[in-house]
Amino acid sequence: MNQSEIYLDHAATTPPSSAAIDAATRAMHEIWGNPSSVHAIGLAANRIREEARAAIFSSLGVRFATEGQLIFTASGTEADNLAVFGTARAKRFSFTPKLITTDSEHPAILQPALQLEKEGWEVVRLSTKGGIINEAELDAALDTRTVLVSIMAANNELGSVYDLSSLFTLVKRKSPKTLTHTDAVQAYGKIPLHPEKMGIDLMTLSAHKIYGLKGAGALYIARDVTKHRQLSPIIFGGGQEFGMRSGTEAIPCIAAFGAAVSEQMKVGINTMNERVRILRAHLIEQLDTRIRVNQPRGAYLPSILSLTLPSVRSEVMLRYLSGMGIYVSAGSACSSHHRTASPTLLAFGLTPADADCTIRVSFSAMQTEEEIDRLNRALTEGLNSLAKIREKRNKPYDG
Ligand code: PLP
Question: Is there a contact between 249 and 53 (Cβ–Cβ < 8 Å)?
Answer without folding.
Answer: no
